[in-house]
Amino acid sequence: MAGIETLFTNAKLADGSLKDIGVAGGRIVAIEPAGTTPRTSATVDIAGALLVPAFVEGHIHLDTSFYGDKWIPHKACTSGFDVHERVAFQAQNMAQAAPMDERARKQLELCVANGSLQMRSHVMVDGSVGLKSLETILKIREEYRGIIDIQLVAFPQNGILKSPGTPELLDEAIALGADLVGGLDPASFDRDLQGHLDVVFGVAEKHGVGVDIHLHDFGSLGAFTVEEICARTAALGMEGKVAISHAYGLGDLDPDSARRIGAKIAKAGVSIMTNAPGDHVFPPVALLRGEGVTVFSGSDNIRDSWWPYGDGDMLSRAMMISYRSGFYTDEELTTAFDVVTTAGAKALDLEGYGIALGAKADFVTLAAEHVPEAVVAVPKPRRVFKEGRLVAENGAVVR
Ligand SMILES: [Zn+2]
Question: Which residues surround ligand 1, an ion (CB under 5 A)?
């Protein structure tokens, strides 16, 4: 076929069919039965491996990970999980860590090698660090342009109202290049739900950008905050541009209450991010999806001051979501896979995502029969292609 620059042949798609995929200008321009497209000088034989769209790493912290640095032992909170105390531990740990740019590169390469080519990273912007972290991560984003697409959230880790100067800094952060405005436990951290949301949505409205709020609050406080965020989103016509990360409180509700609030979340077009963390309750993935909510995922913290876990692999994250959600059937396992791929693309409002004509040729090959097996087995190694170009294989970025 004319116009094909690179031909990927014998690729098994999620529906089990074996296909040739033609790529030109970084986009998929042909999907034909395997063996029917004339080979070009640039032909890559996928040899029957499963070819899936690149994973969406929807929530990570590029500035605060110690991955690739020396091991920093985890310190437990003195009396149960406390966000203020964890933030204080983080400040102590950051002071003794390797330079931020070195750590961010290592974390990014880990994610790319595992097949994530679209990412949303939160970066601290508040009175404690000003815009310093954001400036570093903006530089790193430029370095990795063409390898991975990165959205940055200006994240007020020390609160907005409790950290002097933060409202102005969030405004400056967006002007500087951050893509979204973040927030943190408006009621329990800043003790002022409406005051906190006034700033977050005020900056977002001023710049016409989206919002992604960390919400760790459990029980009715968490659920109430979710409802308030949905109300603001609807009032400002920001459907599809707002996400709530963690939303643990949704995991505390009885099924009827969860369905009722799920319908409100879906109607407001707010997405919910969960990484199915350790021992916390977390949002009921299948129930929320059943109500029409976009549920996406991310590694969140990787070897940082919050926990020592994380491997930058969204396929293993899908396995964890499945495991903790009690997903067993092929349909359920495929649901978990959707959370780390297509649903992530929807939450991040990505253009040209998927294995389809006209989409970006961003894909990963997996040694698996089909998607449910991939979720359970988490096969490695993989080959990772960005706009049709090999960017990682055998667990490392290719240059
Ligand atoms: Zn986070």
Answer: 300
Place of tokens 């209450």: 257
CA dihedral 366, 367, 369, 373 (to 10 degrees): -80
Question: Token pair of 151, please?
Answer: 């959205």
Spatial separation of the C-alpha atoms in residues 353 and 362, rounded to whole Å: 8
Whose tokens are 């030109």? That residue is 24
Contact criterion met (CB below 8 Å) for 213 and 200: yes
List Cβ<8 Å contacts ≥24 apart for 331-335: 332/286, 333/371, 333/372, 333/375, 333/376, 334/371, 334/372, 334/375, 335/285, 335/286, 335/289
Where would I find the beta strands (DSSP E) of the chain? 6-12, 18-24, 27-33, 43-45, 50-53, 55-60, 116-124, 149-155, 180-184, 210-215, 242-246, 270-273, 295-296, 363-366, 383-386, 389-393, 396-397
- What 8-state DSSP symbol labels residue 74? P
In the sheet that holds 270-273, the strands lie side by side as: 55-60, 116-124, 149-155, 180-184, 210-215, 242-246, 270-273, 295-296
8 A C-beta contact, residue 306 and residue 86: yes
The amino acid at residue 206 is K
The rounded Å distance from CA 273 to ligand 1 centre is 10
pLDDT, tens digit, for every residue of 289-342? 999 999 999 999 999 999 999 999 999 999 999 999 999 999 999 999 999 999
Q: Is the peptide bond before 284 cis (omega within 30 degrees of 0)?
A: no
Question: 85-109 pLDDT, tens per residue?
Answer: 998 999 999 889 999 999 999 999 9
Distance 300 CA to ligand 1 centre (A): 5
How far does residue 204's CA lie from ligand 1's centre (Å)?
19
Question: In which band, very low, low, confident or very high, does the pLDDT at 152 lie, cut at 50, 70 and 90?
Answer: very high
Sort strands 116-124 and 55-60 into parallel, antiparallel or unpaired: parallel
Token look-up 């879906």 returns 266
Give 213 Cα–ligand 1 centroid separation in angstroms: 9
CA of 82 to the centre of ligand 1 (A): 15
Give residue 333 CA to ligand 1 midpoint distance, Å.
25
Instruction: Tell me the whole-structure pTM to 2 decimals.
Output: 0.97
